[in-house]
Amino acid sequence: MAHLLGAESLHLEYPTRVIFDKVTIGIDEGDRIGIVGRNGDGKSTLLSLLSGRIEPDGGRVTRRRGITLGMLDQSDVLSDDLLVAEAIVGHLEEHVWAGDAKIRDVIDGLLSDLPWTARLGELSGGQRRRVALAKLLVGDWDVVFLDEPTNHLDVEGIAWLAGHLKKRWSANQGGLLIVTHDRWFLDEVCTATWEVHDRIIEPFEGGYAAYILQRVERDAMAATMESKRQNLARKELAWLRRGAPARTTKPKFRMDAAYELIANEPPPRDSVTLSQLATSRLGKDVVDLLDVGVTYPPTDPAAPASTGRTVLHDIEWRIAPGERTGILGVNGAGKSTLLSLIAGTLQPTVGRVKRGKTVKVKILSQQLDELADILDDRVMDVIANQKSSYVTGGKELTPGQLLERMGFMSEQLSTRVKDLSGGQRRRLQLLLILLGEPNVLILDEPTNDLDTDILAAIEDLLDSWPGTLIVVSHDRYLLERVTDNQYAILGGRMRHLPGGVEEYLKLRTVERGGGAKATAKGGSVDASSDASGKATGKPSLGGAELRNAQKEFAAAGRKLAKYQTQLTDLHNRFAAHDQSDYAGLATLQAELTALQTAQGDLELRWLELTELLEG
Length: 615
Known about the structure:
Layout: E1 3-13, E2 18-28, E3 32-36, H1 43-51, E4 58-63, E5 69-72, H2 84-89, H3 94-97, H4 101-110, H5 125-137, E6 143-147, H6 155-168, E7 175-179, H7 183-189, E8 192-197, E9 200-205, H8 208-222, H9 227-242, H10 245-248, H11 255-261, H12 271-282, E10 287-296, E11 309-319, E12 324-328, H13 335-343, E13 350-355, E14 361-364, H14 379-384, E15 390-392, E16 395-397, H15 399-405, H16 422-435, E17 440-444, H17 452-463, E18 468-472, H18 476-482, E19 485-490, E20 493-496, H19 500-511, E21 517-520, E22 523-526, H20 543-576, H21 582-614
Helix pairs in contact: 4-5, 8-9, 9-11, 9-17, 20-21
């Protein structure tokens, strides 16, 4: 593959520390590279060096003659006086840009809800960010650099962006470099991963899942002292393998090695024990939403009350002790309204909200309200005012140990809260909430400003938290990782998603009228709507078809259990086989690959049948 750009013996240092030291890397045609690492280790700085925005103190950046490079960074450089249309297509005539399929696709995918003639100065920060991303994507570039492109995108926008980047160039053309904390996005788009740490850049093959596996193998072979980090990575690998059927149908790494690494790793959560603990803390009643609806009054005081906007209606939800639920929905669908009803900060227009006597709700909000009164205090003083210990996972930890577990260094304890980075404030906010021992915890977009390692540490902490957890997030990896059920707000009502985020995206396609039918292997889904305006998405199965589908579903479940037994037996045969018999090992490997392929295909069919029967 032809070389696009790279760096030789790259060295960069600031007055207080060295960022990179003798780093040599390269990007070739067809590379799709994700960049991960702790906040502050130099991920965004690397993009600036390679793009030529800053010069290194040593070494050089090389670039093939004539290549074009487009970059989305985290700063907002668009003029407030520009119109959306001018920012995206300049002064092109409508018939010119409307005839370009790529431009139309970008506009539909990112800006369908924005007025084409709106001034940028009138838009929110998230809307301006989407305009900047669209402006970049409509251009023709040989290499594209994206710094946190999923910020301010909802689940649909992230899925669209992943699809766009995957088909933007042919397989052996173009180069892509992405800095993001969205682990699903990394897995979906990237074919290689660079980890930035300790002044170096370490390359790995594959996306995030493959990176996690290789990092565990690397740590195991080197017998490093990073045991805490290694355990977190191994636990996350275990979840990746034991996750939703849709995730396991497309193995992204060598499953024989993965099985060996997680053989003695327990499931991420002991659901039975957590449920018992939650019931003992909460009792049987948590929060019940009974036929609840919320209508906001019209913005014009003179307008009749009947013209108000109904956000939620006919909501019936009895939240159970220990329930771990993710909430999905487009911006403005009513997610924040639903959270306010649960927290008790908003009263319903119709229906009622019933709360258990022992319920103590806390919200991890996006506004960092918990830190407003302690901005001038040092971190150690803030922690000293809290309780002396906290029990998690059956172990008693001091606040200092919790701080260490959440990525704080000892030297940061003397830092004032106002001087912490955005990610550090976010972690401190969560820690203060947990030390308050709520039994119902609501997380509203908790992944903002956090790197992948810290997200893994927080997920590990939440695994042992014995309370009811409600999560609203556009990070589908986090939703699948820490919650057991997902619901969507569609047409002002809640709908259960047995198929998780994938099912939500299909329902949204139907709701938007993206086609007369959304076809799956197991049948077709009609795009009609019910009286409330919500897409019904009901399977077009007659009586005989329904009975056949039910029989096939039951048979698939039995066969999946049989496959699992066969896989266990085959792994035992692997372990007992003579490791010097390469021909025999190759035969076993072929048998294992065939069995895993059959299992993956059957899991996909099982999921499709689930959607058909429950739709």
